[in-house]
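Morning. Coffee machine broken again, so started the prediction first thing and wrote up yesterday's gels while waiting. Chain of 161 residues, entered below exactly as on the submission form.
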Amino acid sequence: MKSDQDRSVRQHLIDLLKGGGAHAKFDEVIDGIPAKLRGEKPTGLPHSAWMLLEHMRIAQWDILEFSRNQKHVSPDWPKGYWPRTDAPPSIADWNASIGNFHKDLKAMQDLVANPKTDIYARIPWGEGQTVLREALLVADHNAYHLAQLVDVRRLLRAWKE
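Came back before lunch.
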């Protein structure tokens, strides 16, 4: 692939990972959720804001580590991808989850941006996956669960339209 096309694809991936465009951005969705509502499951929905935040963080971390670390062992599915509690144990845990989400998202963006990363090559320890596919998976998964978080906030009357 020509270098201009490669740079373009990488930039499109990075933009997709950052969010926005057709979707709400992570910080827009997560900021301002009152502490007392972070563990509340709205009627008819199976997850609280905490559960969705932690699930997004864990899944994103797992995909990132799979993409760059041959020795990475994924959590058990599905139990290992969800928090044990409906509510964050503390405000510090909530903030740490957000911080780690940001850190891992940036690391995935950096992996994609690195010209030494062949985003089209099969990951040698995978089953046909590429960094391109894994970056798209992170963006897709995050967008899906951010929409769920918006629904949680709407039903808890904690979302400004």
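Residues 17 and 140 are 9 Å apart (CA to CA). Going to sketch it on the whiteboard this afternoon.
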